[in-house]
Design goal:
mainly alpha; Ferritin; two-stranded antiparallel ribbon; elongated; Ferritin-like; Ferritin-like_SF
Length: about 150
């Protein structure tokens, strides 16, 4: 099913994704037994909160012409799907949590790539390319933080 969305809708969708991801990580923190996994989940929840805030700031600082740009966007590739598949009754280990984070991250990278490809305006294309690069940098930070926790 396809429907039209504006750039602002995509940014709000992404902000909600980050908030829901932070909530999921907090819920998992309550259920895992490993202190190292709790630290990783706590780090990731705080990270998702920061990214959600930065997406809102990004939206607030963007030009109205960029925000009102229209897209034909399909929800068939729902970025929220992996969040719904998480078993909250399971005791996740470090690798499970890292795999989950990478799965969620890849969904977001795909979304940004799709939005960049579909963008009609060069300014909107640049915005989604910028978000894509920023998300790739965030993925690298997560990998470094996880490696640091493994060294503890």
């Amino acid at each position: 099913m396809m429907r039209f969305e504006q750039t602002v809708d995509v940014l709000e969708h992404v902000g909600l994704f980050h908030r829901k991801t932070a909530e999921l990580y907090r819920a998992l923190t309550e259920r895992v037994s490993s202190p190292r996994v709790k630290m990783l989940l706590d780090y990731m929840a705080r990270h998702e909160d920061r990214v959600a805030l930065s997406i809102r700031e990004y939206r607030d600082e963007s030009r109205p012409q960029v925000l009102s740009s229209w897209f034909k966007y399909t929800h068939d590739e729902d970025i929220f799907a992996p969040l719904k598949e998480v078993d909250l009754d399971r005791d996740y280990d470090f690798d499970d949590v890292l795999d989950l984070a990478l799965t969620l991250d890849s969904k977001l990278l795909e979304l940004y790539q799709d939005m960049s490809t579909q963008a009609v305006s060069p300014e909107v294309k640049d915005m989604f390319n910028s978000l894509l690069l920023r998300e790739m940098e965030e993925k690298q930070k997560l990998m470094r933080a996880a490696a640091g926790l493994l060294d503890l």
